[in-house]
Amino acid sequence: MNILIVYAHPNKKSFNAALKEAVIEQLKELDYDVRVRDLYEIQFDPVLKEDNYTEFYQTNAPEDILYEQKEISWADVLIYIFPTWWTGMPAIMKGYFDKVFTNGFAFRFTEKGAVGLLDGKRALIFQTTGLSEEDLKPKQLIAAMETSFDLGILHYCGVNILTHKFYYSLPYLDQDSKKRVIQEVKDQLIMI
Asked: Start and end of every Flavodoxin-like fold domain (predicted)?
């Protein structure tokens, strides 16, 4: 099975980085083929410019975007690992979707509306946050993030979401709690 990890965190010593490494290790132990797109490491340009929009709309994407699309096409499973910033994904991750999930690649418009073109692909999302569950859930912020990402992007493009896990209060977790989170993430990988 081919698995693509799309990762967004600038700090190589962050808990997100440890999570990414644990995911890679577990997937390799399960004998899956794994590729990683570390958006900061590859210096992905998230800014969609007017000329990009016109090009992408016409499905005449530049080579760097075509490369990202080939990586997605190769994958059976997509894994996204990122922190929550301002109740959403980092701008570099949002820009990745703006530029890579283009009309004609990830979806297309028909007379009956949009049709997802990434059918058959599955996704797992591991999202960290510094806020507590009690801070986010009563205000419907978790539901809003799930709706925006899971339904508004992935499901819209035909991707089946296996899980979207939030890991709360990250700066306040002790080492044992962080180890439990990593083990929980590893356990989630068995279901793919």
From this structure: 1-187
- Domain segments of the chain: what residues? 2-189
Contact (Cβ atoms closer than 8 angstroms) between residue 57 and residue 51: no
CATH fold of 2-189 reads Rossmann fold (3.40.50)
Which contacts of 42-49 are long-range, i.e. CB under 8 A and separated by 24 or more positions? 44/92, 44/95, 44/96, 45/95, 45/99, 46/91, 46/92, 46/93, 46/94, 46/95, 46/96, 46/98, 46/99, 47/95, 48/95, 48/98, 48/99
| H or E stretch covering 180 | helix 175-189
**pTM attached to this predicted model:** 0.94
* C-beta of residue 107 within 8 angstroms of C-beta of residue 117: yes
Would you state the pLDDT for residue 74?
A: 98
CA distance 121 to 188: 17
pLDDT, residue 133, reads: 79
